[in-house]
Amino acid sequence: MAKKRPQTKAGKTGQAQVTSGEIPVVGAREPCPCGSGRRYKACHGRAAAHAVTELVQRPFEGLPGECDWVALRELVPAATVPLTLKGGLPEGVPSVTLATVLPMAWPALRRDDGSVLLALQNDSTSGDLARDLADTLQRALEAEPGTPVPARRVPAEGPRLQELLDADAPFVPEVHSGFEFWIPQSADGADPEVAASLERANAAAIPTVKLTSVDSAYWCEVPDKNHLRWVMPHPEEKLLDALARLHAGEGTSLGAGTRLVGSFRAHGLMVPVWDLPSSMTAEDCEKPAAEFAERLAAALASDAPLTAEERRARGGLTNRQVTLS
């Protein structure tokens, strides 16, 4: 249903921790700052690479639109969101925009006009996506216009996104049919590498639409069937109980030919997934999704013990969970 990423070993504290002594972190192929004459990856970088890293289970917790952050990280091919920084934009930076992915898998890009594009779908090096993204964002704000920001191993210390972004600003994703947003409309022509990357990305993009009647639900079209993937903010155990109550009574249906088939677990949140008939469009999902949201709210409010049938339904839903991250 979506691409799985390898997980970093999880610890109890949920905080990223990478130990590398007092030696600064540099590129893997650069000379080690300790003066040994060896490359960093063969010297002090070896310890950093093998240090225990603890995964932050909910890296986007505390940010506006946490569920949409998860969706754009794991489920949505092409989307953008304007970001608002605490204290406003630095001089010479007209805008900062979050993007699902950038050409050549760049972590970020400082455009010719000084604006910044920050990519979300890149690997984490610290175990804390919010820290990795904050590091990339800070480097992008200081980069020369017209240059991409390279990847690097992020130091354990340093700010997280929650410290850089305005917590009161709205988070409103715009889902795109392709990646044309990579190239400014004012540009005369794209770099050949960017154009080739754009063509490949557009060919692989799954048509996706964000529903408007409920929060953080995304319809997508795949061969033979469509899906609805809905990122939900509720605690996992509580949500599983509520879904089991509804599932036992066929209350999870979104209409004829639809079926709740399981869920993803991504960045500390659950993402229930429905199979839909290939004829069911995103617009067709709007009313059934809103009606389901009302049923789910009532089920979440119940504290009654699960019946035997509901427990069986819960076991089936649990067995059909897939952990993405």
Task: Output the keywords.
325 residues, alpha+beta, 6-stranded mixed sheet, 8 helices, 12 strands, 28% helix, disordered N terminus
How far apart, in Å, are the first and last alpha carbons? 14 Å
Instruction: Work out the helix count.
Output: 8
* Strands side by side in the biggest sheet: 5-3-4-2-1-6
Low-confidence stretches: 1-21
How large is the radius of gyration?
22 Å
Strand content: 15-25%
Secondary structure category: alpha+beta
Quick one: overall form?
Answer: globular
Summed over residues and divided by their number, the pLDDT gives a mean of: 89
* Elements, N to C (H/E): HHEEEEHEHEHEEEHEEHHE
Would you give an account of this structure?
It contains eight helices and twelve strands. It has a six-stranded mixed β-sheet with strand order 5-3-4-2-1-6, with helices on one face. A six-stranded mixed β-sheet has the order 7-8-9-11-10-12. By secondary structure, the protein is an alpha+beta fold.
Summarize the structure.
The chain is α+β, with helices and mostly antiparallel strands. 28% of the residues lie in helices and 17% in strands.
List the helices and strands and how they pair.
Layout: H1 44-50, H2 66-74, E1 79-83, E2 96-99, E3 108-110, E4 116-119, H3 129-142, E5 147-149, H4 161-164, E6 174-175, H5 192-204, E7 208-210, E8 217-222, E9 225-230, H6 236-248, E10 259-266, E11 269-276, H7 282-301, H8 308-319, E12 321-323
Parallel strand pairs: 2-4, 10-12
Antiparallel strand pairs: 1-2, 1-6, 3-4, 3-5, 7-8, 8-9, 9-11, 10-11
